[in-house]
């Protein structure tokens, strides 16, 4: 039993973007000495035929997906987690502090060896629950697949928390919304749209599971790819202007065993959070209805009898009047621990701070079942059944 907490911790670490799992909002120092010159945006939508590009993602233990980008001229490659739960992009810097082991362990950006580097001025600091990432803003060309944006602002990290030393990706590329209230520069995807390198302001994720084998996970920039989903999309409108957040109607079991969020509640889709996170009181109701045993610790996970998992009902997220079911194997995961198989919920309970609005975070365990399109032009998110 006492190996469990360590294993759980590992799982949380690989769900790296703790800003996602624990939903710590992004903060950044103001940089009054420098103002970004805005590139005029073209009206949406500009073209009918999409110039979309598929980016292959690497699946790390079904808990995090990351992919290659290059920065600078000549380009230097980095692996980044594509994170819909945050907006900034950062990679480790060659100037990272010697005492910051996490930063030393990874590929590092060297401004002196790029012809397209520009001094952006200003510092950044992003608070995750595992610690803070800090450094300064720089600008350079950034290439994702064969899509290149110029003058992209990104963070060069010189301090990273010790706990980031065990992750597999070098940095993070935020696909969330730019915070104009703190003068945040345009995101990579904003620049792809304004510089005309994608034709539609839409991107989509297909996340495979290691067990299903075969197909690679894919991030499609500039559209959706029908090879990866079946049926129609269920769309939900964004409920706030600056997050991939929407209203959910209900969360219920297919056999009626329990229903929560009965009068509606808020949900977020987060491509860099491994688990599905809900308010702890509601998750307690759901999990105890199935006989899950709560484990000590936060966020709260539940243990299940592995021999019974296949008999458990579907968990249905009701969005815009449509049911999006998850099979029990998607909300309960088998983990080999010390030669034994343990069944743990991938739906976990979180206590929100007083000033925070409780939300459900639909992370990777949800997005594997549902191909998800993030549509900035229409301020909506679409879910369709992923083709595995
Ligand atoms: C970029 O990639 C797409 C799809 O992979 C391909 O069709 C297109 O020709 C490529 N463009 C360039 C300029 O290489
Ligand atoms: C690289 O960045 C450092 C720190 O901001 C700066 O002192 C240096 O001048 C930069 N190098 C180049 C070639 O601009
Ligand atoms: C990038 O910045 C330079 C000036 O520093 C400017 O001449 C160029 O037009 C910019 N390119 C884009 C695509 O914004």
UniProtKB/TrEMBL annotation:
<feature type="active site">
    <location>
        <position position="270"/>
    </location>
</feature>
<feature type="domain" description="Peptidase A1">
    <location>
        <begin position="65"/>
        <end position="384"/>
    </location>
</feature>
<dbReference type="Pfam" id="PF00026">
    <property type="entry name" value="Asp"/>
</dbReference>
<dbReference type="InterPro" id="IPR021109">
    <property type="entry name" value="Peptidase_aspartic_dom_sf"/>
</dbReference>
<dbReference type="InterPro" id="IPR001969">
    <property type="entry name" value="Aspartic_peptidase_AS"/>
</dbReference>
<keyword id="KW-0645">Protease</keyword>
<dbReference type="GO" id="GO:0004190">
    <property type="term" value="F:aspartic-type endopeptidase activity"/>
</dbReference>
<keyword id="KW-0732">Signal</keyword>
<feature type="signal peptide">
    <location>
        <begin position="1"/>
        <end position="19"/>
    </location>
</feature>
<feature type="active site">
    <location>
        <position position="83"/>
    </location>
</feature>
<comment type="similarity">
    <text>Belongs to the peptidase A1 family.</text>
</comment>
<keyword id="KW-0378">Hydrolase</keyword>
<keyword id="KW-1015">Disulfide bond</keyword>
<protein>
    <submittedName>
        <fullName>Cathepsin-d</fullName>
    </submittedName>
</protein>
<dbReference type="GO" id="GO:0006508">
    <property type="term" value="P:proteolysis"/>
</dbReference>
<feature type="disulfide bond">
    <location>
        <begin position="96"/>
        <end position="103"/>
    </location>
</feature>
<dbReference type="InterPro" id="IPR033121">
    <property type="entry name" value="PEPTIDASE_A1"/>
</dbReference>
<keyword id="KW-0064">Aspartyl protease</keyword>
<dbReference type="InterPro" id="IPR001461">
    <property type="entry name" value="Aspartic_peptidase_A1"/>
</dbReference>
<feature type="disulfide bond">
    <location>
        <begin position="306"/>
        <end position="343"/>
    </location>
</feature>
